[in-house]
Amino acid sequence: MGDLVAEKHVQYILSVQKKKDSFESVVMEHLRMNGAYWGLTTLHLLGKLDTVDVHEVVSWIMSCQHDEGGFGGNVGHDPHILYTLSAVQVLALFNKLDVIDADKVTNYIVGLQNEDGSFSGDIWGEVDTRFSYIAICCLSLLHRLDRINVDKAVKYIISCQNMDGGFGCTPGGESHAGQIFCCVGALAIAGSLDLVDKDLLGWWLCERQVKSGGLNGRPEKLPDVCYSWWVLSSLIMIDRVHWISKEKLIKFILDCQDTDNGGISDRPDDAVDVFHTYFGVAGLSLLEYPGVKPIDPAYALPVEVVNRIFFSK
Ligand code: GRG
Ligand code: ZN
Predict the structure, then answer these.
(1) Could you tell me which residue ranges the Prenyltransferase alpha-alpha toroid domain spans (predicted)?
(2) Residue 204: left if φ>0, alpha if ψ -120 to 50, beta else—which one?
(3) Is the pLDDT of residue 275 over 90?
(4) Residue 43, in any domain of the structure
(5) Pocket of ligand 1 (CB under 6 A)
(6) Which residues 6+ apart lie within 8 Å of 74 measured at CB?
(7) What domain range includes position 129?
(8) pLDDT over threshold 80, residue 25
(9) pLDDT at residue 165, rounded to an integer
(10) Tens-place pLDDT, residues 61-106
């Protein structure tokens, strides 16, 4: 097993950021804001955020904001709660949260809460526990969690809990590791993790580790590096991370690196992308791999950024 080729991954992220007309950039056009969060968080975790032009990024983010307060995935794209969280997270990385009007962003999110406590993603109304997480995470980062009905939001999330201990995107929806991260993360931030059966959920989550050491997102599915984030962060939040083999998971993630050109793929020998590079590095961060800064499992931001937001005057 080789080591983490951190410097190669930094070069890979920087090169994708520059190549605006590359294949990957064209495919990613509609979710540039999420791509910015994945790439820039990876650079921060590897201690290389200072190689980026802060002013350029911040002014691009602000040009994606709409009058009603939400952010689009790129300039001229419709606002959505998905991109709004990424915009807030990137500004947090750069210690630039003060450039936004927090009340305006808050009003946009408050307007997306439904009567049953759930959240829609935008004006078109799709409901998903992903949006509950995003609303709670985003408002917490803006110190405005009291502006929504948190009790109802928590009740809705609990109504999406299944008999197997996992969570789905709506009540009755199949348990999926991505949705579990969202529900557990939201409950962690809301201070309501006591409502989760940690042994039952921990059992479901630790069963996601397959022979190769990688984690899958549901029973019978293939392992994928991104579940090193969705599953592992959830196990940490419910205090059951010792139920999987950390060593085997580290080996699986390192085996997914392109050691020549940088970047990490979903599984060994596949093509790399920024999404899986971020989740690989973030997974190694949760596994306390040397040279990678610690990341907070609930906010999905470096611990030093979260501490700056909540513990500095
Ligand atoms: C701040 C990290 C962070 C996230 C923001 C958008 C969001 C909140 C969370 C998304 C959670 C989610 C549903 C993740 C799953 C993504 C994924 C790999 C889906 C693939 O599902 P399938 O069914 O693949 O295509 P499998 O692996 O089941 O074969
Ligand atoms: Zn994946």
Answers:
(1) 5-300
(2) alpha
(3) yes
(4) yes
(5) 82, 85, 130, 133-134, 178-179, 181-182, 217-218, 221, 224, 226, 230, 300
(6) 29, 30, 32, 33, 64
(7) 6-311
(8) no
(9) 97
(10) 999 999 999 999 999 999 999 999 999 999 999 999 999 999 999 9
Contact between 232 and 283 under an 8 Å Cβ cutoff? The reply is yes
Nearest CA to ligand 1 atom 1: 300
Q: What separation, in Å, do the N-terminal and C-terminal C-alpha atoms of the chain show?
A: 44
Whole-prediction pTM: 0.96
Report residue 313 as tokens.
């005057």
What is the domain count for the chain?
A: 1
| pLDDT exceeds 90 at position 23 | no
Q: Of all protein residues, whose CA lies closest to atom 19 belonging to ligand 1?
A: 178
Distance 270 CA to ligand 2 centre (A): 11
Question: What single letter denotes the amino acid at residue 294?
Answer: P
Look over the chain and give the mean of its residue pLDDT values, rounded to a whole number.
96
Task: Examine residue 50 and state whether it is found in any structural domain, yes or no.
Answer: yes
Q: What is the CATH number of the domain that holds 83?
A: 1.50.10.20
Given a contact cutoff of 8 angstroms between Cβ atoms, the answer to whether 286 and 278 are in contact is no
- Taking a C-beta distance cutoff of 8 angstroms, is the pair 294, 282 a contact? no
Distance (Å) from CA 217 to ligand 2 centroid: 9
Q: What pLDDT band is residue 31 in, cutting at 50, 70 and 90?
A: confident
Q: Quickly state the pLDDT bin for 16 (edges 50, 70, 90).
A: confident
- Where does residue 203 rank: exposed (0-12), middle (13-18), buried (19+ CB within 10 A)? middle
Of 176, 222, 229, 234, which is best to mutate to test ligand 1, by the most ligand atoms within 8 angstroms of its C-beta? 176
Does residue 1 fall inside a structural domain? no
Q: Which atom of ligand 1 is nearest to the CA of 181?
A: 11
Domain presence at residue 41: yes
* Band (21; pLDDT cuts 50, 70, 90): low
Among 290, 241, 277, 219, residue whose Cα is nearest residue 10: 277
Give, using CA atoms, the residue closest to atom 10 of ligand 1: 178
For residue 177, which ligand has an atom nearest its CA? 1
